[in-house]
Write a structure and sequence with these properties.
alpha/beta, Alkaline Phosphatase, subunit A, disordered N terminus
Amino acid sequence: MSPRAAAVALALGLGLAGLTACADEAASPSTSSPATSSTGGPSAATSSTEPSTSAPPTTPKPEKPFGGRRVLAISVDGLNPTALSPDLTPHIWWLFERGLGTVNARSEFEKTVTLPNHVGMVTGRPVLAENGGHGVMWNSDRAGATVPSAPESIFTWVSQHGGTGITFSGKSKFTIFQRTWGAEVAPVVIEPDLDRLADAAVNDLTENARTFTFVHLAEPDHTGHAKGWLTPAYRRALAHADAVVGRLLDAVDADRRLRRSVVVVLTADHGGSGRRHGGATEPANYTIPFVIFGRGIAHEDLYAASPELSDPGRSRPDYSGVQPVRNCALANVSADILDLDPVPGAGCNADFAVASEGLN
């Protein structure tokens, strides 16, 4: 199926946002966001030939764990948001046209490299220990290394409330999650081939009722280093990653339970320019996307909908004052979606409440 046809199929079938959209709108995604309206679920009609003589017995509705929600978190490694377009990345674009998002989010303040930012995503902490951070200053797969002091994470927080999580990654350094929080709490599947990674993630998503699924797509970063960011090769790699996002959305669309329960959170660890991204003071490196999409999530610009956040323009704010949304918000945003309090010790965007309509 072509990306354009896939976008049409998604718009016609995907019920996550609880929105109605015509096929013409979905077939031609535009740079302006379409108007949306929230709709309730179908009501069941009942009939009887005899009037009831007494009120029917009432049964307490069973409580749904995590509000009946699940989170599919996607990190596109090295995603420079200036490369996003309806033609090149139709599935990610589709999320922005129907979700709560911004292309002007921020990475961690201290570093714009992969491992520190991804540990920040799952712990909700900055990098430096003196900032209350997680302390992962390195960006390599150190044998036996764990996150210093093993802080709480979205994996441990979900597990403590009876749920399960998993990570799928193209880079072996992500095994630090499993070494830190244990194979039962934070299992990690490493698969460098993007298509095989997609196969594994889709299979687990549909076969196992995970509360939190984290999918890391490494190919854009690999190609950026090899050929340069925003080059034709980088754009092809980004299109490949976008196709995997489409596969994940198709898997959700094909399962009624997933359509009703899954909320997608998509972001990136850093952008990039030239063949590098390590300069933490460069806008091309610290500017990233952040979007939330799911049934009941309002379609709006994230900053316009969130007075507790501040659009940073092109600036690079530190952790003082009113904050932009950062990729480390992923931990607390996921907790909020799952009806949990913020992850203990996770100060990153802890006061950012997801704008939703009838999320539960």
